[in-house]
């Protein structure tokens, strides 16, 4: 089956290996075969990063789905093949009436892009796409430890993805143009999304060789149950060291410390994992300091309880 796909797609096995690692790293065999065939049908070249595959809900078989992400040039190319496409002749219209903030540095409310399509009478008519900043910008929540709730919670603060921070006008304009192209050529472009519309799927500045190296490193590390950035923690004396993901480090350690019953256990836990805690503090100063304060507070609480007995 794979040989048929290779022949139909026009790629060598080595090229398919590169495509899998750079443009469809999370796909399984069936999804990758579908991706390659879709690239062939749309006439887009993954080697030029014109089309990529993004897998949502990778760890949930019931919700898992693959979406095709097409670079804006690829969307234009598909529309142009119809013979009825004319690119925008006017500059993108930006409405700048939103309040400026760290997640919207220029105060952009929306972008409007107009392309042109030829009707059956041979006349050109405008097709306008609009993209609202608050619907498309790649903004994520900032999480932190809530002392009262004893768990991590959203702080209410937001952060804007680096690409959107560096090139806000370009990113929102690509979203608007993608909307216009889908509206004008629904049969050709329905279900295809521009990279800017997929929150943080890829690092746009990463070279193909860098993407391959990152994927190969991730594959090697996954074989030993370790991904980049994990912390080595020994929770119980004599037990195996566990690799804890960055997003779970605070919660796992805080929960463990809360269950310790003697000051010696707290001191021992801190001493055994001193280098790990130092690295954690260097990576995340606020959470590292908070975790240290929690361990100190636990020692004091245990000592206080002992005095009242």
Which descriptors would you attach to this protein?
alpha+beta, 309 residues, 3 domains, 47% helix
Q: Decide which structural class fits the backbone.
A: alpha+beta
Strand content: 15-25%
**Helical content class:** 40-55%
Tell me the span between the first and last alpha carbons: 73 Å
* Overall number of structural domains: 3
H/E series, N to C? HHHEEHEEEEHEEHHHEHEEHHHH
Oligomer: single chain
Describe the main β-sheet briefly: 4 strands, antiparallel
Average pLDDT: 84
What does it look like?
The chain has helices at about 1-10, 15-25, 30-40, 70-80, 135, 160-165, 170-185, 185-190, 210-225, 245-260, 265-270, 275-285, 285-309, and strands at about 50-55, 65-70, 85, 95, 110-120, 125-130, 140-145, 150-160, 190-195, 230-235, 240-245. With about 300 residues, it is α+β, with helices and mostly antiparallel strands. The chain has three domains: about 1-70 and about 195-210, no CATH class; about 70-185, no CATH class; about 230-300, no CATH class. Strands 3, 4, 5 and 6 form a four-stranded antiparallel β-sheet that branches. Helix 11 runs antiparallel to helix 13. The longest helix is centred in the C-terminal third of the chain and has 24 residues, at about 285-309. It is elongated, with a radius of gyration of 25 Å. It starts with a helix and ends with a helix. About 25% of the residues are buried.
């Amino acid at each position: 089956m794979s040989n048929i796909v290779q022949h139909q797609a026009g790629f060598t096995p080595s090229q398919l290996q590169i495509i899998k690692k750079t443009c469809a790293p999370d796909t399984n065999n069936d999804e990758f075969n579908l991706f390659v065939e879709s690239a062939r049908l749309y006439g887009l070249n993954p080697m030029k990063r014109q089309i990529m595959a993004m897998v949502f809900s990778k760890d949930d078989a019931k919700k898992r789905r693959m979406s095709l992400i097409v670079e804006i040039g690829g969307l234009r190319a598909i529309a142009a093949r119809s013979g009825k496409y004319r690119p925008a002749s006017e500059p993108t219209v930006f409405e700048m009436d939103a309040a400026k903030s760290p997640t919207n540095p220029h105060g952009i409310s929306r972008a409007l892009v107009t392309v042109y399509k030829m009707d059956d009478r041979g006349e050109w008519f405008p097709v306008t796409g609009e993209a609202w900043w608050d619907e498309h910008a790649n903004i994520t929540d900032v999480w932190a430890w809530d002392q009262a709730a004893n768990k991590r919670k959203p702080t209410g603060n937001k952060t804007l993805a680096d690409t959107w921070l560096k090139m806000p006008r370009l990113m929102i304009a690509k979203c608007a143009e993608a909307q216009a192209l889908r509206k004008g050529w629904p049969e050709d472009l329905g279900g295809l999304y521009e990279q800017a519309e997929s929150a943080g799927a890829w690092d746009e500045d990463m070279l193909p060789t860098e993407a391959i190296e990152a994927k190969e490193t991730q594959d090697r590390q996954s074989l030993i149950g370790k991904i980049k950035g994990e912390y080595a923690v020994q929770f119980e004396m004599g037990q195996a060291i566990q690799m804890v993901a960055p997003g779970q480090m605070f919660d796992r350690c805080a929960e463990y410390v809360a269950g310790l019953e003697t000051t010696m256990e707290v001191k021992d836990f801190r001493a055994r994992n001193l280098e790990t805690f130092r690295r954690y503090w260097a990576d995340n100063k606020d959470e590292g300091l908070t975790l240290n304060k929690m361990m100190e507070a636990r020692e004091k609480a245990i000592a206080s309880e002992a005095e009242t007995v």
